[in-house]
């Protein structure tokens, strides 16, 4: 009784540890619907498996588009998708470990009274027919127990999570996705062994004891390429297999990625033609494996043995069972050559007629045999008869292939980064929804700034057909074009007749409310153009691939920069990063002289995780010129790096338009050159009609018009995206710096001969959009 308790405790600890590791491995992600999800293998998401059960290989295009946009794994990783937490199919301890194990669909066995080929799944048959299979790497099959180097390149080893023996079963490569093995290699009644799941497959192995396999051929040494290890995406077990029987002992192992065939890694043929159905009695049949030898120890080298086929009665008498036509009996009971438990799941194969040539064809899977494997037990072995299960095999190498082929199609496309710094795919312009929509809207009159964007999106070279870097979610993956996915969540503009606060996103409002914002680095506002050291600690510089800095922005949360949409879409070079805590861009360390020299810590550079552009931004009309940059990591606030406040309280809405406003930036000065030091200027608000007349634009409440028409002080193109801000009452009625505008458009020459005002995006009208998109 005590022993049983100990075993149960051990199993419970193992299970809890396994569950903890799985939970820990799950990453949070964002669904295309902007809900929080969990990044899991796609076959563990109920939404996906339900779709496949419902539609088979006819999943509607809008679902396919959603699936591709849900992908959360890297291109080099096994495919994972972002799944709703409640739809993640949980791991069941000891019953069906890790959804890798799947009971396959029931398919009728081969009916020997009907035409064989007509019973096979057509698509599965096409997959097999299109393979070059069954070619040995040896010109002639020699006798002896040891194989030549990579003589049988289809041999597979199933890798287990076991401290005592990494490899416990064999298998055979049959396509570039599937390994054929025995069901008992994946399912056992022993709960402790059941925890030792098959965690991988090794291909291209010859000698387990060597990292590089070589053999002497005459005076020269030949070495094989390294082995290749694959993960297991799914194990498909025959639905009628039971651990108490040797019948239906067949399973398919779906690999986590496509196998690239090489000289030492190639598939074996299956009996998929009428001619290849029957075993040629006059030819020897092979078994091969790294299994236990007659002495009971595992061989490090791949071994082979010639065996004979026997009547069912020989195995029936030996094992006291009745064999069916689903099984084969074979062995060498005179010499004791046979397979042992280490070779379970391995192939029984023969050189036989296949199409117009002789190829190695697999006819059996090692199912059961003598366990001692020495001369005292000269027993034959029972093999699963593959011919009987060809309808099931051809059905399932198609059934679970379609969904992953969607991803493989996408993964085959070259990855790239769009001019707006988002992940993209290098595809034909016809396969990009964004381009299709542009042609539909503008025909041959596409605006110049969009043409410039398309030119910068080109990712093909030389004489190749034109391909463009298209955002992942806008790649058309079916004959029906997907709808254009906007860069952000569309939110209604501010309605001035409704309560202001009620129109803001509650979660976004909470994020902003919990931030200590709007504190300047200087205790007083000094005059002059140059700022004091870190006077405005929210100022950001946008870093570009070409010129180093060309736009500004403001830090508003520990993850987000507020800037202008034209800074990320209209620039000729992509935005690649953000700098915070800068004062003088020519110096590594910024210091301010005085009685005591005061120096600031070095600035901090951040990457960009996501660019969120207002979906209604229009460069030509200069409207909705606003964007958010999500940084690649959280900002640690300090004296030199702090956020500015946004107008999100009723107090902040009471703007004193007669008071002075501030602009700041490193932009072009009156002489046309860029300033090294952060500058500032005091501005006054002008009537919107003044900007409308000056710029001949349709101006509305989404804009602010401001400038200093007496001295020509305003912002220039280097300051685009920077803030228009003011010291005003905030939450506690104490004065803080609050941002009311984003530099959008102004005089290009920026000298005293061009006394033009500047046009700013009115932040207040976009607060519903901002609070929604920072969540």
Automatic annotation (TrEMBL):
SMART domains, sorted: CLIP, Tryp_SPc
Record-annotated Clip domain positions: 415-470
GO BP term, pick one: protein maturation
Family under the similarity heading: Belongs to the peptidase S1 family. CLIP subfamily.
Listed InterPro entries: CLIP, CLIP_sf, Peptidase_S1_PA, Peptidase_S1_PA_chymotrypsin, Peptidase_S1A, Ser/Thr_Proteases_Immune/Dev, Trypsin_dom, TRYPSIN_HIS
Alphabetical list of Pfam families matching this protein: CLIP, Trypsin
Highest classification ranks of the organism: Eukaryota, Metazoa, Ecdysozoa, Arthropoda, Hexapoda
Keywords of this entry: Calcium, Disulfide bond, Glycoprotein, Hydrolase, Metal-binding, Protease, Serine protease, Signal, Zymogen
Signal peptide: 1-25
PANTHER family: TRYPTASE-RELATED
Protein name from the UniProt record: Uncharacterized protein LOC119634606
Domain of life, source organism: Eukaryota
SUPFAM superfamilies: Trypsin-like serine proteases
Keyword Signal found: yes
Residue ranges of every copy of the Peptidase S1 domain listed in the record: 141-398, 525-775
UniProt KW Signal keyword: yes
GO molecular function: metal ion binding; serine-type endopeptidase activity
Natural source organism: Glossina fuscipes
Gene: LOC119634606
PROSITE patterns: CLIP, TRYPSIN_DOM, TRYPSIN_HIS, TRYPSIN_SER
